[in-house]
Amino acid sequence: ECDRVREGYPGGLSNLLPVGRCFCGYDAVGGIACWGCDDEALLELIPEKYTHLSGRGDHQCGLTGGGDIECWGSNDHGQCDVPDGSYIAVSAGRIHTCGVASNGTLHCWGWNDSGQCDAPTGAFVEVSAAWRHTCGMRETGTIECWGCQEGVLEDGQCSEPTGTYSAVDTDAIHSCALSKEGGIACGGNNHDGQCD
Length: 196
Prior knowledge:
This protein has one helix spanning about 1-10; strands at about 15-20, 20-25, 30-35, 45, 50-55, 60-65, 70-75, 85-90, 95-100, 105-110, 125-130, 135-140, 145, 165-170, 175-180, 185-190. It is mainly beta. Mean pLDDT is about 80; it is low at about 1-10 and about 40-45.
């Protein structure tokens, strides 16, 4: 909603991006300011330097340069309760969160009604948490998805593309991967042409 951007924008920020139901940007010293959120607690300046931000739904997370994940916002299902450890990636889903530890192990926490937090074993380099499913990319570039249970909005978003990829991203009921050659493979619900 563009009105939310205009009404709450604090000014003086760069690298503006949507984060869940909010908009966030970096200030001059690397801190984060968020506005336009339904949760007033998210409007405050986060006095931390993050290398990556992720948000979906009512919570947001940031990855610090030291490998820590910090989350804020709604925590009604433990989606902000980050397990101890050092991380290289974070992805905040609708009501769950996943992080790639420095040794490549995946950790997911929060709402797990469809198995979206039941991460496979082995090493990963990237993760993307959605609503009731999650996808990750292995060191080899292959994609694995989990959390799609029959009868729970399963539209093929967990169908894993063959081949090797350089990035993966998920939304509520579809998933996409970017190939190393620049092609895109998507699977899942296509009612608005999001997989065309």
